[in-house]
Design goal:
- The complex is a heterodimer of chains A (517) and B (662).
- Chain A has a domain at 283-503.
- Chain A is globular and about 75 Å long.
- In chain A, helix 12 (252-277) runs antiparallel to helix 16.
- In chain A, 72% of the residues lie in helices and 3% in strands.
- Chain A contains 21 helices and 2 strands.
- Chain A has 517 residues and is mostly helical.
- Chain B contains 25 helices and 2 strands.
- In chain B, helix 8 (224-240) packs parallel to helix 13, helix 15 (339-374) crosses helix 21 (511-524) and helix 16 packs parallel to helix 17.
- The chains are: A mainly alpha (517), B mainly alpha (662).
- Chains A and B meet through helix 8, helix 14, helix 16, helix 17 and helix 18 of A and strand 1, helix 5, helix 6 and helix 24 of B.
Chain lengths: 517, 662
């Protein structure tokens, strides 16, 4: 496989192609007929996925450094160039995104019935934005992609969303914007201060990474700017309230993209930027205590609030708060196991929560309600749907043998040495997860079939089976054979851990006590 | 040197693979062709038979082998991160061999029984799919060479238990019971997870064999680490094996079809906790505090559950509390350090309790068909509606009598030997720690109650006059051979199971003890147990037998002396009997103290309060309102003259750039 990829020069053009193809696809969709929009969208999405598969072989993950790095000067006077690259961490974020895209398109075929051209074009644009965030190695370009993904998402929620879609779309936009503007300020200040020290004006990731330590006195403020943007995206309690609203109102594919990919950008941002830039602040005792405390709140609070939701989509949304809390704990615990566990949660949550949102969407298309109480006993009429819903839920619960377990287990195992009490509390999350999902399952598919309108529900169609099959296979496969993925992540994780060394004198945030040196 | 051949041992994976295939085939059929019952029965029972045959071959080979250590068969590297390496591998030793035989053997018999019992059920294929899947997970639990792989089985059997308890999910109570089982078990699983984390942090391994190797040297005997690990492990056992305070799910689990109660909730899954303690015997032997707690919880549960069993009328509920109680005895055994006795009782209990459940299944089956024939809507499980069934079901009666004598501890039935060994061990430990005399006493009283409620069950069901109804009596008859044949085999095992570990005073050689010796050898360094012998032994045995006979006689006479009123006309229980009938109101207490407060807190305080009012209402929407207010002020600036805008814009840009690029 590697030989074939080399012979076509795969490594040279693939990252550019992955960014450009969806944009070109979006243009074709817009110029095509409405009837063809979904087909063109699907072709482009499948092509994008097929192209991306080669990355598994083309990216050499063994050194743990950035691979396939390519740079095109953009605004040389400001030190901005379009620089991209990929390592063992971003590889899986990219593959997760490209894998979900065709499924998102396919799942929208009947769900979306108005302004289809715009819809599929925006979905493709969103993909470009997301992929750009994961592979850009220039902070300016990163920021552009970060904002680029915001706009399609805003429209996806605002146009094709549910009844309260405008409130949700604006809330999503304002929350994310508030964070990202602070991040923009932080980027600009950082670049500027580093120029003052080094004399080089550059937005290049490596340049900033190398010299971040020279603007140490600014790092609490800079970390605050980056950290807030990422914290909102994760989302960390108490910045999470945009999530349930956005999820509930977004169309199915929007919810899937939001949960499976967009949320991961927050954690990714911490791993790639905020922590390696400012390890002495980020991993200092104050912030560590704060983040782990908030992560614990997220885990337990998210689960408890999920338990009492009458709306199934909101339930899954709050469960994301809980799952991402685990990932935050893993990142801040900072052992190889816990960080790789966090990465596995990011992937695993993408599969299981993505699957749950697809399934809820399929149910919604049939009955036009997301109220849990509107269902009950439907396992008898839609057995296949119920089996898949069960598998996805069990994965989300963290049943060992399925993918959800691997991440949570690694995080908790790897965090125990330094944070035993936090792990003890976080582990109670497995009890609550079982409670909220099994309770919901019971009210959806078990109990008596007492609502006549449910007795004629149609089981999954072939198209819907095609959407679910890759996710179900992934859920089982990653649960049983996580080895290859873990092995590819490990060098990059270790490199991250070298960068994320708080040093001998971690900064105490609230004292700015750096005067001693 | 010629390569040593391990015979059938490398094929051990087949014991799991075959039921897995059965699950896949039956699961597919359940979705595609649920009416293909013949194929389903053939596949469902066939894979179990094949699995049992492989298991027998494997264990026969193990007898030939001389090496002590576990025989490990590695399939692939499962979780590999840095120094953490968890293989997907099976470990065969003398302990897992015993479990392997019990699970596949008793499992096969129960599968056969199910062919008859579930014949009319529309979910036939689904049932066999779940049953096959259960065997897969149970064998993973038994054979897993590492704690995490064992945990896959551990939670997997919980999943199957959940699915099978709620098999008839259209009844809300059944779905509730399944969910309750899973969640209560998760509380225990929390303990297993934490135990794994502590083990990994302290001795850097999760492999059972390596744990047994490293723990004695790397951990301090009686120290905090080993005590914590064992306490957390035991929390898992308390959940899975339904001990106080987490036993509440098991009685409710009787909502599942009766073969499920026999297989999962009596013979195999619920004994996993006992198995886990035996598997990690070195750790428990190093933690005397934990071991004492294990024995104490076991004794308390044995006695407590037995008292509830005295006043239940549902035939399966009696057996459920009996199972909780008997599991308590096993924990007295392993907590006392008499690991062999605990495992011995596990095995004999698998025989006689599976027999009791399947026998009750035959009874329920007959009752159900009788009521079905007359279109009556009576409770087919209520013993007050039975009586005199020995006339209609002589085989079932005879076999259940054997099982009753076995569980009551009457010689020479199997339960006599195993229970006796446990109580003798507790007595012996008393010399060292007097509290074990108390546990022994509790076990003895529990034995009395056991004999009583079992005799009551047998009497109410099979003796006296029939209360089912005159029209129904014509339809009462023995179950078909496919159901009775497994009962006969289990009857033989319940009768003669004691042979496995015959004590010296009847000329035996403690065969099971010798067989399991390599597994429990390391624990002996930390906790020696001198079993009573001579006159002490004979006195203990004599006392236990007398107590069993008293209980049996009292149970029969006490039940026959008063006329029994059929369920629908029965008056409400009064006084303490009412407390017992209502199971000490423990479920209500948990609901009131734990479930309701958590749900209430989540809904009213966290969701409506913190999330909607404080975060969203005050901060988010509040700041939005503030912005709207500022916006209104700002709108006053909107003069509509473009020139003003341009100037303002320029001023702003210059100001921002100026402050950033200063």
């Amino acid at each position: 496989m590697t030989d074939f990829l080399t012979s076509v020069g795969y490594g040279q053009w693939i990252l550019h192609a992955l960014i450009a193809l969806p944009v070109l696809g979006a243009i074709v969709v817009l110029f095509g007929t409405t009837a063809n929009a979904k087909r063109i969208g699907l072709v482009v999405a499948v092509l994008e996925f097929i192209l991306s598969i080669g990355l598994w072989w083309a990216v050499d993950t063994r050194p743990g450094t950035m691979q396939l790095v390519a740079a095109i000067p953009w605004i040389p006077t400001w030190g901005i160039s379009y620089r991209v690259g990929i390592d063992g961490i971003s590889l899986f974020m990219v593959l997760l995104t490209t894998m979900l895209l065709p499924l998102c398109v396919l799942s929208s075929f009947t769900y979306i019935a108005k302004r289809e051209k715009a819809y599929y074009a925006l979905l493709l644009l969103l993909t470009t934005g997301v992929l750009g965030v994961f592979i850009s190695l220039d902070l300016f370009v990163f920021y552009v992609f970060w904002e680029l993904m915001l706009i399609p998402m805003y429209f996806l929620i605002g146009i094709w969303g549910g009844t309260n879609r405008l409130y949700a779309a604006i809330k999503f936009f304002v929350f994310t914007m508030a964070g990202s503007l602070l991040m923009l300020v932080a980027i600009l200040v950082m670049v500027y201060r580093i120029r003052v020290v080094t004399g080089v004006l550059s937005f290049s990731y490596e340049h900033l990474l190398l010299n971040a330590v020279k603007v140490r006195s600014w790092s609490p403020w800079l970390f605050g700017g980056f950290g807030l943007a990422f914290a909102i995206k994760v989302p960390i309690f108490p910045f999470h309230t945009w999530l349930p609203d956005a999820h509930v109102e977004a169309p199915t594919a929007g919810s899937v993209m939001l949960a499976s990919v967009l949320l991961k950008m927050g954690i990714y941002g911490f791993l790639r930027f905020a922590i390696p830039f400012f390890p002495s602040v980020a991993l200092g005792p104050d912030i560590t205590a704060l983040v782990i405390g908030l992560a614990l709140i997220g885990i337990i609070y998210g689960a408890l609030v999920a338990m009492v939701q009458p709306d199934i989509k909101k339930l899954v949304a709050y469960s994301s708060v809980s799952h991402l809390g685990f990932a935050m704990l893993g990142v801040w615990a900072g052992s190889v196991q816990s960080v790789q566990g966090a990465l596995m949660v990011m992937i695993g949550h993408g599969f299981s929560t993505g699957a749950l949102f697809f399934l809820i969407g399929m149910l919604y298309e049939r009955r036009h309600t997301r109220e849990i109480s509107a269902y009950g006993g439907i396992a008898r009429v839609v057995p296949l749907f119920s089996v898949i819903l069960m598998i996805a839920s069990l994965s989300s619960i963290g049943l060992p043998g399925l993918n959800g377990f691997i991440g949570e287990f690694l995080i908790l195992l790897g965090s125990f040495r330094n944070h035993p009490v936090a792990v003890g509390l976080a582990t109670t999350g497995v009890i609550f997860a079982a409670a909220y999902l099994l309770w919901a399952l019971q009210r959806l598919i078990f109990n008596r079939l007492d609502k006549p309108e449910n007795s004629s529900l149609r089981d999954l169609t072939l198209r819907e089976v095609l959407v679910m099959a890759p996710l179900v296979i992934g859920i089982v496969w990653l649960g049983l054979f996580p080895g290859p993925v873990l092995r590819k992540m490990e060098p990059a994780t270790k490199r991250y851990l070298e960068l994320a060394d708080p040093g001998i004198h971690p900064i105490k945030l609230f004292s700015f006590a750096d005067k001693s040196k | 040197m010629p390569q040593h051949s391990y015979g059938a041992i490398p094929w051990i994976g087949l014991t799991v693979l075959l039921p897995l295939l059965g699950f896949l085939v039956n699961g597919t059929l359940a979705l595609v062709r649920p009416q293909a019952k013949r194929v389903v029965s053939l596949v469902g029972t066939g894979v179990l038979l094949a699995s049992f045959i492989v298991a027998v071959l494997v264990v026969l080979q193990l007898r030939q082998e001389t090496l002590i250590g576990p025989y490990t068969v590695t399939f692939w590297h499962w979780i590999v991160v840095d120094t953490l390496q968890i293989d997907f591998a099976f470990a065969l030793d003398h302990l897992s061999a015993v479990m392997l035989l019990v699970v596949t053997g008793v499992g096969f018999l129960i599968h056969v029984f199910s062919v008859g019992y579930m014949r009319e059920d529309p979910g036939y294929a689904r049932f066999f799919a779940y049953l096959n899947l259960f065997i897969v997970f149970m064998l993973l639990l038994v054979l897993g060479s590492t704690v995490p792989l064992m945990f896959v089985g551990w939670e997997g059997v919980g999943l199957c238990s959940y699915l099978l308890i709620g098999f008839w999910y259209e009844e809300k109570a059944n779905a509730d019971a399944g969910k309750k089982a899973f969640i209560v078990n998760r509380i225990g699983d929390f303990g297993v997870l934490l135990a794994m984390f502590i083990l990994w942090t302290s001795i850097h391994t999760l492999n059972f064999a390596v744990i047994a190797e490293r723990a004695p040297t790397m951990l301090e005997a009686g120290g905090p680490v080993v005590t914590m690990v064992t306490l957390f492990l035991f929390l898992g056992c308390v959940g899975k094996s339904a001990q106080i305070p987490l036993y509440v799910w098991l009685p409710d689990a009787m909502a599942g079809p009766t073969p499920v109660s026999a297989l999962i909730h009596a013979a195999t899954m619920v004994t996993a906790g006992v198995y886990l303690v035996a598997r990690t015997n070195v750790l428990f032997a190093m933690a005397p505090l934990s071991s004492t707690l294990v024995a104490g919880i076991g004794a308390l549960t044995a006695l407590f559950a037995a008292t509830i069993g005295l006043r239940q009328y549902d035939i399966k509920k009696v057996l459920a509390y009996s199972t909780v109680s008997q599991l308590g005895y096993m924990f007295i055994g392993v907590g006392t350090g008499a690991y062999v006795a605990g495992v011995f009782h596990l095995v004999t209990h698998a025989f006689f309790k599976a027999l009791l459940f399947l026998g009750s299944g035959s009874v329920i089956h007959a009752m159900h068909q009788a009521y079905h024939a007359t279109h009556a809507h009576e409770d087919a499980q209520d013993m007050r509606n039975m009586g005199g069934l020995h006339r209609y079901m002589p085989w079932t009666f005879a076999l259940m009598t054997i099982a009753t004598l076995a569980i009551a501890g009457v010689p020479p039935f199997s339960g006599f030997f195993s229970k006796d060994e446990i109580l003798a061990a507790a007595f012996a430990r008393g010399a060292e720690h007097p509290v074990f005399y108390l546990f022994w006493g509790m076990g003895l009283v529990g034995a009395l109650l056991t004999a009583y409620y079992m005799a009551r069950l047998l009497t109410m069901t099979f003796l006296g006059d029939n209360r089912t109804g005159t029209a129904e009596q014509e339809h009462l008859h023995e179950a078909p051979w496919v159901m009775t044949a497994p009962l006969v085999v289990l009857g033989a095992l319940s009768l003669a199971g004691g042979i496995l570990n015959l004590p010296a005073f009847v000329g035996g050689h403690h065969a099971l003890e010798t067989w399991l010796d390599p597994v429990f050898e390391p624990a002996k360094k930390f906790s020696q147990l001198v079993m009573p012998h001579g006159s002490t032994e004979l006195l203990l045995i004599g006392g236990a037998v007398v107590i069993a006979v008293i209980g049996l006689v009292a149970g029969i006479r006490g039940t026959l002396v008063r006329p029994i009123v059929v369920a629908k006309n029965a008056p409400a229980e009064m006084g303490f009997a009412r407390v017992l009938f209502n199971k000490y109101y423990i479920d209500e207490l948990y609901q009131f103290l734990i479930v309701s407060p958590i749900v209430g807190l989540s809904r009213l305080v966290l969701w409506k309060g913190v999330d909607q009012s404080v975060v969203d209402g005050f901060f988010v929407n509040g700041s939005a309102a503030l912005m709207r207010g500022l916006g209104w002020l700002g709108s006053r600036l909107q003069t509509g003259q473009v020139g003003v805008y341009v100037i303002l814009f320029l001023v702003g840009v210059v100001w921002i750039l100026g402050s950033v690029l200063r």
